[in-house]
Amino acid sequence: MGEKATTAISSAQEYVKAPLIYKGKVRELYDLGEHFLIAVTDRISAFDWVLSPAVPDKGNVLNSLSKFWFEQTAAIQPNHVVHADVERLGDIITDADVMKDRFMVTKKAERIDIECVVRGYITGGGWRQYQKSGEVNGHKLPEGMRKNERFPQPLFTPAAKNDVGHDEDISIERMKELVGAELTEQLREKSIRLYEFAHAFCAERGIILADTKFEFGLIDGEIILIDEIFTPDSSRFWDKTKYELDIEIDGMDKEPVRTYLSGTDWDKNSEPDPLPPHVVEETSRRYRDIYNRLVQG
Description:
By secondary structure, the chain is an alpha+beta fold.
């Protein structure tokens, strides 16, 4: 994915002849009858706002990375992918060139309303929790930990899904109340196993997978991995050469957008101004870079 995309799309609606049943910040869900079609747009969000303009190649990278990782982890954990072959969709897709790398046809699963977060390092929201309470999602941690320090074992820190606003960090005990003790333990084990696999894979390519999140669903009682997996939107990737304790590490994701917005006088409560071209270009470059390093080695 070294070549730049010529078209950035904010919606796939004009390219998909099927009912749109859900529109998220980035993904759109279309109903094909037996299956779903998930289209990944180039929309980008930060601070709970969808920004403009769309970022070229972002959707292609997110979708292609998820497809790659679903294939890599299929033996560890069954997932929802049916196929990603544009030819098999016929005239459902009106422009194959635009859509060929930005969609998946998936099984229909009943979503489990828990975001399964695994943290390998104490950073971000986990670090902020620790500074206040010495805990992360109810896990009591040793005193004196330093920002970005690696945990001895990955930490499972779930969140209750909230389609409006932020997901809510919860303890494992609260998760058991919501979905039951057996399912909680199954999701914890599956999430940590997936994280450990990807952490080792990334390490071989000079990348640290600091933390990540998964979504699961149920099909006939079987736990299925759904949504996206190990993308810059669902995971925190660090270049190993930039890893240090006690600093804010520049992530391999949409960090240029967050940095730019934080340096403006935007109040985060009103529609933000369009992103300048250099921020869009740098963000697009980072998405392509993480794809190339992970998939092409």
